[in-house]
Amino acid sequence: MIYYQPEIGQLLFGNPMGGFEMPPYACSMLTGLLDNFDQVYWNQHQHEWQRDACVEIGPVYFRPYWWGDDDTPEAGLPNFGLTDDPVEIRWYKHAKRGQSVNMDLTPGQWAAWHDRVYRAMMMIEYERNRGIMTHPDECYHWHIEPIVGDKT
User: Fold this and answer.
1) CA distances from 5 to 10, 20, 88, 95 (A)
2) Which of 44, 86, 105, 107 is least enclosed by beta carbons within 10 angstroms?
């Protein structure tokens, strides 16, 4: 468990943050999910998304860093996650900077979270492309085998 230690600007002037640092492998997972989010957004809207607006793709949400007043409700919202999932990702100013999470997750829990988010996006793609795309459950093995020594 590594408690999150923000940079000085985030500590003094930033929005609320998660209590735990995201490990490097989880940051890589998030980068991949954001790239996939970009692709699904393009497929739906046929234009690029600049990551500067709140967007939902099914139950997956993205919120840019809140630059407004600290006392507004938006200031306390997480930046990325899955509706009805307890994992909340937060960052400082932009993704890949000052990333934190509200829970202390094991590697297996991170892998399971990644799969829940990825599958949710792929189900949106499947619904949009019914008949020309294979169902995600037929393409991917969603069960994550426990990592040796992992407590998940």
Assistant:
1) 10, 8, 17, 16
2) 86
Q: Residue ranges per domain, the chain?
A: 8-139
Look at residue 142 and give its three-state secondary structure. coil
The answer to whether 74 and 48 are in contact (CB under 8 A) is no
pLDDT for residue 128: 80
User: Is 16 exposed, middle or buried (CB count within 10 Å of its CB: 0-12, 13-18, 19+)?
Assistant: middle
Our separate counts of H helices and E strands in the chain read: 4, 6
Q: Which stretches within the chain are classed as H helix?
A: 8-13, 24-45, 107-128, 136-139
DSSP structural state of residue 104? -
Closest of 118, 124, 120, 131 to residue 42, by C-alpha: 124
136 in Cβ contact with 123 (< 8 Å): yes
pTM, rounded to two decimals: 0.82
Pair 58, 120: CB distance under 8 Å: yes
